[in-house]
Amino acid sequence: MNIKRIAILGAVFGALLLPATFSPAMAQEEEISLPKQDWSFTGPFGSYDKASAQRGFQIYKEVCSSCHSLKLSYYRELEGIGLSEEQIKAVAAEQTFPTIGDDGQPAERPGTPADHFHSPFPNDKAARAANNGALPPDQTLLVNAREGGADYIYALLTGYEDAPAGMKLGDGMNYNKYFPGHQIGMAAPLSDDRVEYADGTKATLKQEARDVATFLAYMSNPELETRKRLGLRILLFLAALTCVTYAVKRQIWSDVHH
Amino acid sequence: MVGLHKSEFKNPVINWIDTRLPLFTMMAKEYGVFPTPKNFNYFWNFGALAMVNLVIMIVTGIFLAMNYDPNTGNAFESVERIMRDVNYGWLLRYVHANGASMFFIVVYIHIFRGLYYGSYKKPRELLWMIGVVILLLMMATGFMGYVLPWGQMSYWGATVITNLFSAIPVVGDSIVTLLWGGFSVDNPTLNRFFSLHYLLPFVIVGVVFLHIVALHITGSNNPLGIEPKDKQDTLPFHPYYTIKDSVGICVYLMVFAVLVFFAPGFFGDPANWTPANPLVTPAAIVPEWYFLPFYAILRAVPDKLGGVLMMFGAIAVLFVLPWLDTSPVRSAKFRPIYRLLFWLLVICCFVLGAVGAHHPNGIWVILGRIGTAYYFLHFLVLLPLLGKFEKPLPLPESISKAVMPVAAE
Q1: Is CB count within 10 Å lower at the N or C end of chain B?
Q2: Residue B10 domain-assigned?
Q3: What does the pLDDT look like over A52-104, one tens digit per residue?
């Protein structure tokens, strides 16, 4: 009896200990805690705030895209944030892509919705050369690739401050509260009224950061809405199936003493 | 034994086939009337769940392989193409990636169930050892599968783990070169890992077949750990356990679905969403969660070869477990001290898992060493001694006597 109690206590203690021991970001030596934002796309019923994502796309186009590529996603994926086919065609056609002309010589053609997003630099080396040696990461999967996801993007974009007294920044580096190591090559990209929103929303820094984080969250997980909707239907089906199966099991076992 | 099989099936087509190749008779014998102890609890579902999981992995894997490109220049992009271009490609990939985690959850529970109820004891030693072989094959397959998306953690995980073999004296470096197909983890490595990742699951299928054949020779263990004596103690596998397994499968699928549809990145590492870059080392190289306890044991020893030996030793002790445990009583239900040790071992494995997830400094080094020492102490010292000193509780006369006490007579 006594031993059983000890064992149970031990197991409970272990279970309580678990989340506390596994969860801390394994990577960082210094723990940077990100303020949690309220996003429309979290939770089992979550979906993207399309207006916000469209504003975010405007920021990507006017600000981010001068350095950051979005090369794993396609123009056609803009459909998911509510752009019409015509709008997407127009966006794609703004860029030219290399092709081979009818005469067999290198030529250029306008982009189509089936093209990957046009990259600002031909390759990583060119990107580094133009950015003081730093490589602006591709933004397609950025939200998935960073601990904290959209919260991290928001925190980073709003986390620029003056370096604390006594900290010496490297040449051309900027201080950011939330960047690992706090020294970031990118200068604060957003500020109040950095863009003029097409839909008339007031472009505060926080609004801009929120919108672009929403857009990038969509770009990282364009399947999210389909996935969650399908998931709910499958779970409902499985719940019903579980009940029926369990009832049948009870029925079959009803004549067995066990 | 030459001669046609005398089939009892009435359907002429089935009878014709069964006479020449008695598959139907075999299935009826092994899965129809197969006498199964009637006192299984739901922990006995996990073998069937592992089987279902293996099938899911193979099916999704085959379709993923149709769209995947094992070339270092294209691998990461081809995975993203699967996510964006292939119809329901995201579903295939998330089922496969989370399926690996589900597989290890299911199999670890299956193994600990065996530990608790003494399922490895005579006459099931070989059945158990074949199971350990399956675990090893699963680990190799899981490791190589994680390399395929060619993200940062794929690359650096592959580098760290393959480098372990360089600790082997004399031939170590040659083995590593052979594994890599060159002098660093590169395109040849990815190619051979892809090939092996496709091959090993079918090897697993073969070994699982042996596991099941061995099981059907000895019959299943049960929560009481005593052999069934007569018909009173058993039930035909169908419909009693086909339906009970079905309940388990439904619940398992629900857990699986929550993971796939609502938290597909739960077990993943964000670093693997960045393409592999041999020039940039991630802040921390952490293996998949199912390797963490072994990773902790590896790092608990300050000597490379020693660490590698201990890590493989952690699995090797499982091979000889049937002879390390000297108690004739199987089920922990009747072994009060073993029951306590079992739970301590469970806690020990969780602690080691947590250690594996953290940078090896401060308290984690100490915990890692204590955990490692205790793990081996449990198998190599405590279990052999316990059989001699522990006084087991009286065993019930039979399974049916235990479940149907006096009143039912």
Answers
A1: N
A2: no
A3: 999 999 999 999 999 999 999 999 999 999 999 999 999 999 999 999 999 99
User: Which residue in A92, A91, A43, A52 sits closest to A203, CA to CA?
Assistant: A52
Output the six-digit token pair for B83. 């996510």
* CB pair distance less than 8 Å for B339 and A241: no
CA distance B72 to B87: 24
Range of the domain at B340: 288-394
Q: Is residue B28 domain-resident?
A: no
The pLDDT tens digits for B111-156 are 999 999 999 999 999 999 999 999 999 999 999 999 999 999 999 9
Amino acid (one-letter) located at A27 = A
B66 with B184, same domain? yes
Residue of A7, A220, A258 lying closest to B339 (CB–CB): A7
On the question of pLDDT at B407 being above 50, the answer is no
Verdict on whether the full-model pTM lies above 0.90? yes
Q: Which residues contact A253 (CB under 8 A, 6 or more apart)?
A: B240, B243, B244
> What's the CA gap between B348 and B342, in Å, rounded?
10
Same domain, B322 and B228: no
Helix and strand numbers (H, E) in chain B are 16, 2
Asked if B77's CB is within 8 angstroms of A72's CB, the reply is: yes
Tell me the catalytic residues of B: 216, 220, 244-245, 288
What span, in angstroms and rounded, lies between the C-alpha atoms of B257 and A52? 29
Distance from CA of B147 to the nearest CA of A (A): 17
Is A249 in contact with B239 (CB distance < 8 Å)?
Answer: no
Mean pLDDT to the nearest integer, B3-16? 94
Please identify, in words, the CATH class of the domain defined by A42-251: mainly alpha
**Which residues in chain B are closer than 8 Å to A9, comparing Cβ atoms?**
none
DSSP character string of B204-237:
HHHHHHHHHHHHHHH----TT-----SGGGEEEH
With CB atoms and an 8 Å threshold, state whether A230 touches B286. Answer: no
Q: B235, B268, B285: which is the final residue of a domain? A: B285
Q: What is the ipTM of this complex?
A: 0.91
